[in-house]
Amino acid sequence: MAVVLSEKEKKWMEGVIKEEQITRYLENGRDFIDDEEIWEKLRKNQNPDKQRIREIIQKSLEIEILEPDETAALLNVKDPELWQEIFDAAAKIKKKVYDSRIVTFAPLYCSNLCVNNCVYCGFRRENTVIKRRRLTLEEVRREAEVLAGEIGHKRLIAVYGEHPTTDAKYIADTIRTIYEVKVKTKNGYGQIRRVNVNAAPMSIEELEMLRDVGIGTYQVFQETYHHETYKKLHPEGTIKSHYQWRLYCHHRALEAGVDDVALGVLFGLYDWRFEVMGLLYHARNLEKFFGIGPHTISFPRLEPAANTPFAQESKYKVSDEDFKKLIAVIRLSVPYTGMILTAREPAHLRDEILSMGIVTQTDASTKIGIGAYSDRYTEQEAERQQFLLGDTRSLDELIRERAKMGYITSFCTAGYRCGRTGKHIMTLLKTGREAVFCKLNAVLTFREWLDDFASEETKIAGEQVIQKEIEEIKERVPAEVFSKLMEYYRRIQNGERDLYF
Amino acid sequence: MEKETSTSKKLLIEEFTRLSDLIKSKYGVSLWLVEIMGKRHSYVAGYKEESFLPPQVIYLNERFAIVSNNWDKIPEKEKKKLINHLKKFSGT
Protein backbone atom coordinates (compact mmCIF):
# COMPACT_ATOMS: atom_id res chain seq x y z
CA MET A 1 0.00 0.00 0.00
CA ALA A 2 1.40 3.37 -0.99
CA VAL A 3 1.79 5.83 1.85
CA VAL A 4 1.47 9.35 0.56
CA LEU A 5 3.84 11.99 1.86
CA SER A 6 2.24 15.06 3.41
CA GLU A 7 2.84 18.48 1.88
CA LYS A 8 4.92 19.41 4.91
CA GLU A 9 7.11 16.34 4.48
CA LYS A 10 7.54 17.01 0.76
CA LYS A 11 8.52 20.62 1.34
CA TRP A 12 11.00 19.64 4.04
CA MET A 13 12.55 16.98 1.79
CA GLU A 14 13.17 19.52 -0.97
CA GLY A 15 15.48 21.52 1.29
CA VAL A 16 17.61 18.72 2.73
CA ILE A 17 20.23 18.08 0.06
CA LYS A 18 22.78 20.84 -0.61
CA GLU A 19 24.47 19.96 -3.90
CA GLU A 20 27.36 22.38 -3.30
CA GLN A 21 28.21 20.36 -0.19
CA ILE A 22 28.79 17.33 -2.39
CA THR A 23 30.50 18.72 -5.48
CA ARG A 24 33.31 20.32 -3.44
CA TYR A 25 34.66 16.84 -2.66
CA LEU A 26 34.27 15.27 -6.10
CA GLU A 27 37.37 14.71 -8.19
CA ASN A 28 36.89 15.32 -11.91
CA GLY A 29 33.19 15.29 -11.20
CA ARG A 30 33.29 11.72 -9.83
CA ASP A 31 33.06 10.19 -6.37
CA PHE A 32 35.78 7.91 -5.02
CA ILE A 33 33.93 4.63 -5.56
CA ASP A 34 34.72 3.36 -9.04
CA ASP A 35 32.76 0.10 -9.30
CA GLU A 36 34.73 -1.14 -12.27
CA GLU A 37 38.07 -0.39 -10.66
CA ILE A 38 37.05 -2.35 -7.54
CA TRP A 39 36.02 -5.37 -9.57
CA GLU A 40 39.19 -5.09 -11.61
CA LYS A 41 41.31 -5.14 -8.44
CA LEU A 42 39.42 -8.15 -7.11
CA ARG A 43 40.02 -9.95 -10.43
CA LYS A 44 43.65 -8.91 -10.75
CA ASN A 45 44.55 -10.15 -7.28
CA GLN A 46 43.12 -13.65 -7.58
CA ASN A 47 45.23 -16.57 -6.34
CA PRO A 48 47.65 -14.44 -4.34
CA ASP A 49 51.05 -15.76 -3.51
CA LYS A 50 51.57 -16.90 0.13
CA GLN A 51 54.63 -14.72 0.54
CA ARG A 52 52.76 -11.65 -0.68
CA ILE A 53 49.94 -12.26 1.81
CA ARG A 54 52.47 -12.55 4.61
CA GLU A 55 54.04 -9.22 3.56
CA ILE A 56 50.61 -7.60 3.62
CA ILE A 57 49.96 -9.05 7.08
CA GLN A 58 53.27 -7.58 8.20
CA LYS A 59 52.27 -4.15 6.92
CA SER A 60 48.98 -4.34 8.85
CA LEU A 61 50.84 -5.34 11.99
CA GLU A 62 52.74 -2.06 11.64
CA ILE A 63 49.31 -0.32 11.79
CA GLU A 64 49.39 1.02 8.26
CA ILE A 65 46.25 1.33 6.20
CA LEU A 66 46.36 -1.03 3.20
CA GLU A 67 46.34 -0.23 -0.51
CA PRO A 68 43.23 -1.43 -2.41
CA ASP A 69 45.31 -4.08 -4.24
CA GLU A 70 46.47 -5.46 -0.89
CA THR A 71 42.96 -5.74 0.52
CA ALA A 72 41.82 -7.33 -2.73
CA ALA A 73 44.58 -9.93 -2.35
CA LEU A 74 43.47 -10.76 1.21
CA LEU A 75 39.89 -11.12 0.02
CA ASN A 76 41.06 -13.67 -2.55
CA VAL A 77 42.82 -16.00 -0.12
CA LYS A 78 41.56 -19.58 -0.34
CA ASP A 79 44.07 -21.50 1.76
CA PRO A 80 42.57 -22.25 5.25
CA GLU A 81 46.01 -22.09 6.88
CA LEU A 82 46.61 -18.66 5.44
CA TRP A 83 43.21 -17.58 6.70
CA GLN A 84 44.25 -18.71 10.15
CA GLU A 85 47.32 -16.49 9.85
CA ILE A 86 45.04 -13.60 8.92
CA PHE A 87 42.79 -14.25 11.95
CA ASP A 88 45.81 -14.46 14.25
CA ALA A 89 47.23 -11.20 12.88
CA ALA A 90 43.85 -9.49 13.27
CA ALA A 91 43.82 -10.41 16.96
CA LYS A 92 47.40 -9.16 17.40
CA ILE A 93 46.53 -5.85 15.77
CA LYS A 94 43.51 -5.34 17.98
CA LYS A 95 45.58 -6.09 21.07
CA LYS A 96 48.32 -3.71 19.94
CA VAL A 97 45.96 -0.81 19.20
CA TYR A 98 43.26 -1.27 21.85
CA ASP A 99 44.57 -3.91 24.25
CA SER A 100 42.17 -6.66 25.35
CA ARG A 101 39.26 -4.50 26.52
CA ILE A 102 35.87 -4.48 24.84
CA VAL A 103 33.91 -1.27 25.08
CA THR A 104 30.19 -1.64 25.67
CA PHE A 105 27.32 0.59 24.64
CA ALA A 106 23.57 0.50 24.04
CA PRO A 107 21.45 1.76 21.19
CA LEU A 108 18.66 4.19 21.98
CA TYR A 109 16.06 4.41 19.23
CA CYS A 110 14.40 7.81 19.49
CA SER A 111 12.06 7.59 16.51
CA ASN A 112 10.98 5.30 13.69
CA LEU A 113 9.31 7.90 11.50
CA CYS A 114 11.00 7.99 8.11
CA VAL A 115 10.38 9.61 4.74
CA ASN A 116 12.57 7.08 2.94
CA ASN A 117 11.46 3.79 1.51
CA CYS A 118 14.47 1.47 1.49
CA VAL A 119 13.33 -1.97 0.43
CA TYR A 120 15.31 -3.87 3.08
CA CYS A 121 14.30 -1.70 6.08
CA GLY A 122 11.50 -2.40 8.54
CA PHE A 123 11.07 1.34 9.12
CA ARG A 124 10.53 2.17 5.43
CA ARG A 125 7.73 4.66 4.84
CA GLU A 126 5.37 2.22 3.13
CA ASN A 127 5.65 -0.47 5.79
CA THR A 128 2.23 -0.01 7.34
CA VAL A 129 2.60 -2.76 9.95
CA ILE A 130 5.09 -0.67 11.91
CA LYS A 131 3.77 1.28 14.90
CA ARG A 132 5.19 4.77 14.41
CA ARG A 133 6.43 6.76 17.34
CA ARG A 134 8.77 9.62 18.15
CA LEU A 135 9.92 9.97 21.74
CA THR A 136 9.27 13.24 23.53
CA LEU A 137 12.23 14.72 25.40
CA GLU A 138 10.67 13.51 28.65
CA GLU A 139 10.50 9.98 27.22
CA VAL A 140 14.11 10.25 26.05
CA ARG A 141 15.07 11.24 29.60
CA ARG A 142 13.23 8.22 31.02
CA GLU A 143 15.01 5.90 28.59
CA ALA A 144 18.40 7.38 29.55
CA GLU A 145 17.59 7.02 33.25
CA VAL A 146 16.99 3.29 32.84
CA LEU A 147 20.13 2.87 30.74
CA ALA A 148 22.39 4.89 33.04
CA GLY A 149 20.75 4.21 36.39
CA GLU A 150 19.57 0.60 36.20
CA ILE A 151 21.68 -1.13 33.56
CA GLY A 152 24.83 0.93 33.97
CA HIS A 153 25.62 2.05 30.45
CA LYS A 154 27.86 5.09 29.98
CA ARG A 155 27.84 5.25 26.18
CA LEU A 156 24.85 5.30 23.85
CA ILE A 157 24.24 5.40 20.19
CA ALA A 158 21.07 7.38 19.64
CA VAL A 159 19.24 6.33 16.48
CA TYR A 160 16.82 8.40 14.37
CA GLY A 161 14.84 7.96 11.18
CA GLU A 162 14.94 10.69 8.55
CA HIS A 163 11.89 12.88 9.09
CA PRO A 164 11.04 16.56 9.60
CA THR A 165 10.01 15.84 13.19
CA THR A 166 13.44 14.37 13.96
CA ASP A 167 15.60 17.00 12.31
CA ALA A 168 18.97 18.26 13.57
CA LYS A 169 17.29 20.46 16.19
CA TYR A 170 15.40 17.49 17.65
CA ILE A 171 18.59 15.40 17.62
CA ALA A 172 20.51 18.18 19.39
CA ASP A 173 17.73 18.47 22.00
CA THR A 174 17.78 14.74 22.67
CA ILE A 175 21.59 14.71 23.06
CA ARG A 176 21.34 17.58 25.55
CA THR A 177 18.57 15.77 27.44
CA ILE A 178 20.56 12.53 27.67
CA TYR A 179 23.64 14.33 28.96
CA GLU A 180 21.57 16.00 31.69
CA VAL A 181 20.54 12.68 33.24
CA LYS A 182 22.23 11.83 36.54
CA VAL A 183 20.86 8.92 38.58
CA LYS A 184 21.80 7.75 42.06
CA THR A 185 23.16 4.20 42.06
CA LYS A 186 24.17 1.71 44.75
CA ASN A 187 27.53 3.34 45.47
CA GLY A 188 27.73 6.40 43.26
CA TYR A 189 25.76 7.81 40.35
CA GLY A 190 25.03 6.82 36.78
CA GLN A 191 25.41 9.10 33.77
CA ILE A 192 25.64 8.81 30.03
CA ARG A 193 29.05 10.25 29.20
CA ARG A 194 29.14 9.82 25.45
CA VAL A 195 26.23 10.08 23.03
CA ASN A 196 27.06 8.82 19.56
CA VAL A 197 24.53 9.41 16.83
CA ASN A 198 23.27 7.23 14.00
CA ALA A 199 21.18 9.49 11.80
CA ALA A 200 20.65 10.51 8.22
CA PRO A 201 23.23 12.55 6.31
CA MET A 202 23.09 16.23 7.20
CA SER A 203 24.45 19.53 5.98
CA ILE A 204 27.54 21.13 7.48
CA GLU A 205 25.38 23.69 9.29
CA GLU A 206 23.23 20.96 10.88
CA LEU A 207 26.29 18.98 11.88
CA GLU A 208 27.64 22.08 13.59
CA MET A 209 24.51 22.04 15.75
CA LEU A 210 25.31 18.48 16.84
CA ARG A 211 28.96 19.40 17.39
CA ASP A 212 27.95 22.25 19.67
CA VAL A 213 25.96 19.99 22.00
CA GLY A 214 28.85 17.54 22.31
CA ILE A 215 28.04 14.68 19.94
CA GLY A 216 30.35 11.68 20.35
CA THR A 217 30.74 9.90 17.02
CA TYR A 218 28.62 10.61 13.96
CA GLN A 219 27.76 7.27 12.41
CA VAL A 220 26.26 6.79 8.97
CA PHE A 221 26.33 3.54 7.03
CA GLN A 222 26.53 3.70 3.26
CA GLU A 223 24.48 0.42 3.28
CA THR A 224 26.03 -0.60 -0.07
CA TYR A 225 28.86 1.01 -2.01
CA HIS A 226 27.74 -0.53 -5.28
CA HIS A 227 26.10 2.29 -7.26
CA GLU A 228 23.61 0.21 -9.22
CA THR A 229 22.49 -1.82 -6.19
CA TYR A 230 22.19 1.35 -4.16
CA LYS A 231 19.92 2.81 -6.82
CA LYS A 232 17.73 -0.29 -6.88
CA LEU A 233 17.26 -0.47 -3.13
CA HIS A 234 16.64 3.22 -2.48
CA PRO A 235 13.67 4.30 -4.61
CA GLU A 236 13.93 7.43 -6.69
CA GLY A 237 12.34 10.51 -5.20
CA THR A 238 13.51 9.74 -1.68
CA ILE A 239 16.35 11.64 0.02
CA LYS A 240 18.24 8.43 0.56
CA SER A 241 18.30 7.71 -3.17
CA HIS A 242 21.07 10.33 -3.45
CA TYR A 243 24.17 8.12 -3.22
CA GLN A 244 26.69 10.95 -3.05
CA TRP A 245 24.82 12.97 -0.42
CA ARG A 246 25.24 9.94 1.82
CA LEU A 247 28.77 9.08 0.69
CA TYR A 248 30.17 12.48 1.65
CA CYS A 249 28.32 13.03 4.92
CA HIS A 250 31.40 12.08 6.95
CA HIS A 251 33.42 14.61 4.98
CA ARG A 252 30.86 17.25 5.92
CA ALA A 253 30.97 16.16 9.56
CA LEU A 254 34.74 16.52 9.66
CA GLU A 255 34.46 19.89 8.00
CA ALA A 256 31.89 20.88 10.63
CA GLY A 257 34.34 19.97 13.40
CA VAL A 258 32.82 16.61 14.38
CA ASP A 259 36.14 14.85 14.22
CA ASP A 260 35.01 11.30 15.10
CA VAL A 261 33.07 9.65 12.29
CA ALA A 262 31.95 6.07 11.78
CA LEU A 263 31.44 4.01 8.63
CA GLY A 264 29.47 0.87 7.95
CA VAL A 265 27.91 -1.40 5.40
CA LEU A 266 24.76 -3.48 5.62
CA PHE A 267 26.20 -6.79 4.53
CA GLY A 268 23.81 -8.83 2.46
CA LEU A 269 22.77 -6.19 -0.03
CA TYR A 270 25.63 -6.84 -2.44
CA ASP A 271 28.82 -8.91 -2.76
CA TRP A 272 30.68 -8.77 0.57
CA ARG A 273 34.13 -8.57 -1.02
CA PHE A 274 33.10 -5.51 -3.01
CA GLU A 275 31.70 -3.87 0.13
CA VAL A 276 34.92 -4.41 2.11
CA MET A 277 36.78 -2.73 -0.74
CA GLY A 278 34.26 0.13 -0.57
CA LEU A 279 34.93 0.63 3.13
CA LEU A 280 38.66 0.76 2.47
CA TYR A 281 38.25 3.35 -0.30
CA HIS A 282 36.06 5.39 2.02
CA ALA A 283 38.59 5.32 4.86
CA ARG A 284 41.41 6.23 2.47
CA ASN A 285 39.46 9.16 1.03
CA LEU A 286 38.78 10.57 4.51
CA GLU A 287 42.48 10.28 5.31
CA LYS A 288 43.35 12.00 2.05
CA PHE A 289 41.08 15.00 2.67
CA PHE A 290 41.36 15.38 6.43
CA GLY A 291 44.20 13.19 7.73
CA ILE A 292 41.58 11.42 9.87
CA GLY A 293 40.20 7.95 9.20
CA PRO A 294 37.04 6.34 10.58
CA HIS A 295 36.76 6.16 14.37
CA THR A 296 34.83 2.91 13.96
CA ILE A 297 33.59 0.59 11.24
CA SER A 298 30.39 -1.45 11.65
CA PHE A 299 29.48 -4.54 9.69
CA PRO A 300 25.83 -5.40 10.39
CA ARG A 301 24.27 -8.21 8.40
CA LEU A 302 20.80 -8.07 6.96
CA GLU A 303 18.33 -9.47 9.50
CA PRO A 304 14.64 -10.38 9.28
CA ALA A 305 12.24 -7.47 9.74
CA ALA A 306 8.45 -7.22 9.93
CA ASN A 307 6.75 -7.32 6.53
CA THR A 308 10.10 -7.06 4.73
CA PRO A 309 10.53 -10.04 2.41
CA PHE A 310 13.72 -8.65 0.85
CA ALA A 311 15.60 -9.44 4.06
CA GLN A 312 14.96 -13.16 3.53
CA GLU A 313 15.32 -13.20 -0.23
CA SER A 314 18.61 -11.40 -0.88
CA LYS A 315 21.05 -13.52 -2.86
CA TYR A 316 24.00 -11.76 -1.23
CA LYS A 317 23.39 -12.95 2.31
CA VAL A 318 26.71 -13.53 4.07
CA SER A 319 27.44 -16.90 5.69
CA ASP A 320 28.93 -17.08 9.19
CA GLU A 321 32.24 -18.26 7.76
CA ASP A 322 32.48 -15.37 5.32
CA PHE A 323 31.36 -13.00 8.05
CA LYS A 324 34.37 -13.92 10.17
CA LYS A 325 36.63 -13.47 7.16
CA LEU A 326 35.30 -10.03 6.31
CA ILE A 327 35.75 -8.86 9.91
CA ALA A 328 39.37 -10.01 9.85
CA VAL A 329 40.05 -8.32 6.51
CA ILE A 330 38.57 -5.04 7.73
CA ARG A 331 40.81 -5.26 10.81
CA LEU A 332 43.88 -5.73 8.63
CA SER A 333 42.86 -3.14 6.03
CA VAL A 334 42.17 -0.27 8.45
CA PRO A 335 44.18 -1.47 11.44
CA TYR A 336 43.66 1.56 13.67
CA THR A 337 39.86 1.63 13.50
CA GLY A 338 37.41 0.56 16.18
CA MET A 339 35.15 -2.30 15.11
CA ILE A 340 31.59 -2.81 16.31
CA LEU A 341 29.82 -6.16 16.57
CA THR A 342 26.18 -5.72 17.51
CA ALA A 343 23.37 -7.78 19.01
CA ARG A 344 21.94 -8.34 15.55
CA GLU A 345 24.12 -11.43 15.58
CA PRO A 346 23.14 -14.59 17.49
CA ALA A 347 24.72 -15.08 20.92
CA HIS A 348 26.80 -18.11 19.96
CA LEU A 349 28.36 -16.30 17.00
CA ARG A 350 29.02 -13.16 19.03
CA ASP A 351 30.81 -15.25 21.63
CA GLU A 352 32.85 -16.97 18.95
CA ILE A 353 33.82 -13.70 17.26
CA LEU A 354 34.61 -12.00 20.56
CA SER A 355 36.88 -14.87 21.49
CA MET A 356 38.79 -14.28 18.24
CA GLY A 357 39.87 -10.96 19.80
CA ILE A 358 39.34 -8.77 16.73
CA VAL A 359 36.45 -6.43 17.56
CA THR A 360 36.54 -3.49 19.97
CA GLN A 361 32.91 -2.66 20.80
CA THR A 362 29.63 -4.48 21.42
CA ASP A 363 26.20 -3.64 22.74
CA ALA A 364 24.33 -5.44 25.52
CA SER A 365 20.91 -5.37 27.21
CA THR A 366 19.93 -4.16 23.79
CA LYS A 367 16.39 -3.05 23.00
CA ILE A 368 15.59 -1.45 19.70
CA GLY A 369 11.87 -0.76 20.03
CA ILE A 370 10.95 2.90 20.47
CA GLY A 371 10.60 3.52 24.20
CA ALA A 372 11.49 -0.10 24.93
CA TYR A 373 13.78 0.43 27.92
CA SER A 374 11.35 2.42 30.05
CA ASP A 375 8.31 0.47 28.83
CA ARG A 376 10.17 -2.56 30.18
CA TYR A 377 8.83 -4.98 27.62
CA THR A 378 10.81 -8.16 27.56
CA GLU A 379 9.81 -9.87 24.32
CA GLN A 380 10.87 -8.53 20.94
CA GLU A 381 8.02 -6.86 19.05
CA ALA A 382 8.65 -6.92 15.33
CA GLU A 383 6.20 -4.13 14.58
CA ARG A 384 8.10 -1.60 16.61
CA GLN A 385 11.62 -2.68 15.70
CA GLN A 386 13.71 -2.02 12.60
CA PHE A 387 14.76 -5.68 12.56
CA LEU A 388 14.91 -8.66 14.94
CA LEU A 389 17.81 -9.02 17.35
CA GLY A 390 19.88 -12.19 17.54
CA ASP A 391 21.28 -11.66 21.06
CA THR A 392 19.06 -10.35 23.84
CA ARG A 393 21.33 -11.17 26.78
CA SER A 394 21.56 -8.68 29.62
CA LEU A 395 24.67 -6.59 30.21
CA ASP A 396 25.24 -8.40 33.50
CA GLU A 397 25.09 -11.79 31.80
CA LEU A 398 27.32 -10.74 28.93
CA ILE A 399 29.93 -9.16 31.20
CA ARG A 400 30.00 -12.31 33.33
CA GLU A 401 30.51 -14.52 30.31
CA ARG A 402 33.23 -12.27 28.91
CA ALA A 403 34.94 -12.13 32.28
CA LYS A 404 34.98 -15.94 32.35
CA MET A 405 36.66 -15.79 28.92
CA GLY A 406 39.27 -13.43 30.42
CA TYR A 407 38.02 -10.20 28.85
CA ILE A 408 37.50 -6.95 30.68
CA THR A 409 34.50 -4.84 29.72
CA SER A 410 35.23 -1.15 29.45
CA PHE A 411 32.90 1.80 29.82
CA CYS A 412 35.59 4.30 28.94
CA THR A 413 34.53 7.58 27.41
CA ALA A 414 37.66 9.53 28.28
CA GLY A 415 39.15 10.26 24.86
CA TYR A 416 36.77 12.82 23.47
CA ARG A 417 36.65 14.70 26.76
CA CYS A 418 40.36 15.52 26.80
CA GLY A 419 41.16 16.21 23.18
CA ARG A 420 42.01 12.67 22.13
CA THR A 421 40.02 13.15 18.95
CA GLY A 422 40.65 13.52 15.24
CA LYS A 423 44.33 13.64 14.28
CA HIS A 424 45.44 13.33 17.90
CA ILE A 425 43.67 10.02 18.50
CA MET A 426 44.81 8.76 15.08
CA THR A 427 48.45 9.20 16.13
CA LEU A 428 47.85 7.53 19.49
CA LEU A 429 46.12 4.60 17.81
CA LYS A 430 48.75 4.14 15.13
CA THR A 431 51.59 4.18 17.65
CA GLY A 432 49.91 1.75 20.05
CA ARG A 433 49.93 4.36 22.86
CA GLU A 434 46.14 4.50 23.02
CA ALA A 435 46.14 0.85 24.12
CA VAL A 436 47.67 1.90 27.45
CA PHE A 437 44.97 4.52 28.06
CA CYS A 438 42.37 1.90 27.09
CA LYS A 439 43.75 -0.53 29.64
CA LEU A 440 43.91 1.99 32.49
CA ASN A 441 40.44 3.37 31.84
CA ALA A 442 38.95 -0.10 31.41
CA VAL A 443 40.00 -0.96 34.95
CA LEU A 444 38.55 2.24 36.43
CA THR A 445 35.23 2.11 34.58
CA PHE A 446 34.83 -1.63 35.17
CA ARG A 447 35.39 -1.02 38.90
CA GLU A 448 32.58 1.56 38.84
CA TRP A 449 30.22 -0.81 37.08
CA LEU A 450 31.00 -3.78 39.34
CA ASP A 451 30.34 -1.68 42.44
CA ASP A 452 27.14 -0.11 41.11
CA PHE A 453 25.40 -2.72 39.00
CA ALA A 454 26.89 -6.22 39.06
CA SER A 455 25.06 -9.25 40.41
CA GLU A 456 27.00 -11.22 43.00
CA GLU A 457 27.94 -13.91 40.49
CA THR A 458 29.19 -11.37 37.96
CA LYS A 459 31.11 -9.51 40.60
CA ILE A 460 33.05 -12.67 41.48
CA ALA A 461 33.97 -13.26 37.83
CA GLY A 462 34.75 -9.56 37.34
CA GLU A 463 37.08 -9.30 40.34
CA GLN A 464 39.34 -11.98 38.88
CA VAL A 465 39.65 -10.17 35.57
CA ILE A 466 40.27 -6.82 37.17
CA GLN A 467 43.06 -8.24 39.33
CA LYS A 468 44.69 -9.82 36.29
CA GLU A 469 44.52 -6.48 34.45
CA ILE A 470 46.02 -4.60 37.39
CA GLU A 471 48.93 -7.06 37.50
CA GLU A 472 49.54 -6.59 33.79
CA ILE A 473 49.43 -2.81 34.12
CA LYS A 474 51.95 -2.91 36.95
CA GLU A 475 54.42 -4.61 34.62
CA ARG A 476 53.76 -2.27 31.76
CA VAL A 477 53.61 1.32 32.99
CA PRO A 478 55.98 3.55 35.00
CA ALA A 479 55.60 3.43 38.77
CA GLU A 480 54.10 6.93 39.01
CA VAL A 481 51.35 5.96 36.53
CA PHE A 482 50.59 2.76 38.41
CA SER A 483 50.48 4.61 41.68
CA LYS A 484 48.03 7.14 40.20
CA LEU A 485 45.89 4.29 38.89
CA MET A 486 45.68 2.74 42.33
CA GLU A 487 44.86 6.10 43.90
CA TYR A 488 41.97 6.55 41.43
CA TYR A 489 40.91 2.94 41.96
CA ARG A 490 40.58 3.43 45.70
CA ARG A 491 38.74 6.71 45.26
CA ILE A 492 36.25 4.95 43.00
CA GLN A 493 35.78 2.21 45.58
CA ASN A 494 34.95 5.01 48.00
CA GLY A 495 32.18 6.33 45.78
CA GLU A 496 33.89 8.90 43.51
CA ARG A 497 32.99 8.54 39.86
CA ASP A 498 34.31 9.48 36.43
CA LEU A 499 38.04 9.56 37.15
CA TYR A 500 40.09 8.82 34.07
CA PHE A 501 43.47 8.84 32.34
CA MET B 1 39.78 20.62 3.87
CA GLU B 2 38.71 21.90 7.27
CA LYS B 3 36.23 24.74 7.33
CA GLU B 4 37.84 28.15 7.18
CA THR B 5 39.13 29.07 10.61
CA SER B 6 38.12 32.43 12.05
CA THR B 7 40.86 35.05 12.40
CA SER B 8 40.69 35.09 16.20
CA LYS B 9 40.97 31.31 16.38
CA LYS B 10 43.90 31.41 13.96
CA LEU B 11 45.68 33.94 16.16
CA LEU B 12 45.07 31.81 19.24
CA ILE B 13 46.44 28.73 17.48
CA GLU B 14 49.54 30.61 16.31
CA GLU B 15 50.22 31.98 19.76
CA PHE B 16 49.50 28.65 21.42
CA THR B 17 51.85 26.87 19.01
CA ARG B 18 54.63 29.33 19.71
CA LEU B 19 54.26 28.99 23.48
CA SER B 20 53.75 25.23 23.54
CA ASP B 21 56.99 24.88 21.53
CA LEU B 22 58.72 26.96 24.14
CA ILE B 23 57.30 24.91 27.04
CA LYS B 24 58.23 21.69 25.31
CA SER B 25 61.83 22.77 24.78
CA LYS B 26 62.20 24.22 28.29
CA TYR B 27 60.42 21.59 30.39
CA GLY B 28 59.77 18.69 28.04
CA VAL B 29 56.02 19.00 28.71
CA SER B 30 53.42 18.47 25.97
CA LEU B 31 50.47 20.82 25.80
CA TRP B 32 47.58 20.62 23.41
CA LEU B 33 44.77 23.02 22.69
CA VAL B 34 41.16 21.82 22.61
CA GLU B 35 37.89 23.41 21.56
CA ILE B 36 34.98 22.72 23.91
CA MET B 37 31.59 21.68 22.54
CA GLY B 38 29.42 20.35 25.35
CA LYS B 39 31.24 17.31 26.71
CA ARG B 40 33.36 17.10 23.56
CA HIS B 41 36.85 18.58 23.80
CA SER B 42 38.14 18.43 20.24
CA TYR B 43 41.84 18.53 19.48
CA VAL B 44 42.90 21.75 17.75
CA ALA B 45 46.70 22.00 17.93
CA GLY B 46 49.77 21.15 19.93
CA TYR B 47 51.90 18.22 21.00
CA LYS B 48 50.72 14.68 21.59
CA GLU B 49 50.74 13.11 25.01
CA GLU B 50 54.17 12.09 26.23
CA SER B 51 53.12 10.25 29.38
CA PHE B 52 50.25 8.11 30.60
CA LEU B 53 49.32 10.28 33.56
CA PRO B 54 45.73 11.60 33.77
CA PRO B 55 45.03 14.62 31.56
CA GLN B 56 44.58 17.95 33.29
CA VAL B 57 42.25 20.38 31.57
CA ILE B 58 43.00 24.06 32.09
CA TYR B 59 40.17 26.25 30.87
CA LEU B 60 40.96 29.48 29.05
CA ASN B 61 37.29 30.35 28.61
CA GLU B 62 34.04 28.55 27.76
CA ARG B 63 35.30 27.65 24.30
CA PHE B 64 38.97 26.75 24.66
CA ALA B 65 41.17 24.84 27.07
CA ILE B 66 44.69 23.55 27.21
CA VAL B 67 45.35 19.96 28.23
CA SER B 68 48.47 18.31 29.57
CA ASN B 69 49.36 15.20 31.48
CA ASN B 70 52.47 16.75 32.95
CA TRP B 71 51.10 20.15 33.89
CA ASP B 72 52.67 19.96 37.36
CA LYS B 73 56.16 19.93 35.88
CA ILE B 74 55.79 23.54 34.75
CA PRO B 75 56.72 26.15 37.40
CA GLU B 76 53.74 27.98 38.88
CA LYS B 77 54.92 31.40 37.69
CA GLU B 78 55.29 30.14 34.13
CA LYS B 79 51.83 28.51 34.22
CA LYS B 80 50.17 31.76 35.29
CA LYS B 81 52.00 33.73 32.61
CA LEU B 82 51.02 31.20 29.96
CA ILE B 83 47.33 31.12 30.90
CA ASN B 84 47.02 34.88 31.23
CA HIS B 85 48.67 35.41 27.88
CA LEU B 86 46.55 32.82 26.06
CA LYS B 87 43.37 34.16 27.64
CA LYS B 88 44.01 37.44 25.84
CA PHE B 89 43.99 35.57 22.54
CA SER B 90 40.99 33.40 23.34
CA GLY B 91 38.60 36.29 23.69
CA THR B 92 38.40 36.74 27.46
In short:
Chain A: This is Iron-only hydrogenase maturation protein HydG. The complex is a heterodimer of chains A (501) and B (92). Chain A has 501 residues and is α/β, with parallel strands linked by helices.
Q: Spatial order of the strands in the main sheet of chain A?
A: 1-2-5-6-7-8-9-10
Query: What does the overall shape of chain B look like?
Result: globular
Helix content of chain B: 25-40%
Computed over alpha carbons, the radius of gyration of chain A is 22 Å
Beta-strand residue fraction of chain A: 5-15%
Strand content of chain B is: 15-25%
Stated plainly, the CATH topology of chain A is called TIM Barrel
Structural class, from helix and strand content of chain A? alpha/beta
* Biggest interface between chains: A-B, 47 and 25 residues
Tell me the total number of β-strands of chain A: 11
- Mean pLDDT score of chain B: 91
The end-to-end distance of chain B, rounded to whole angstroms, is: 29 Å
Name of the top-level CATH class of chain A = Alpha Beta
Helix residue percentage of chain A: 40-55%
Based on CA atoms alone, the radius of gyration of chain B comes out at 13 Å
Shape call of chain A: globular
Low-confidence spans of chain B: pLDDT under 50, at least 5 residues?
A: none
Give the total of domains of chain A: 1
Q: How many β-strand runs of chain B?
A: 4
Protein name (chain A): Iron-only hydrogenase maturation protein HydG
Pfam families (chain A): BATS (PF06968), Radical_SAM (PF04055)
Cofactor (chain A): [4Fe-4S] cluster
GO molecular function, one term (chain A): metal ion binding
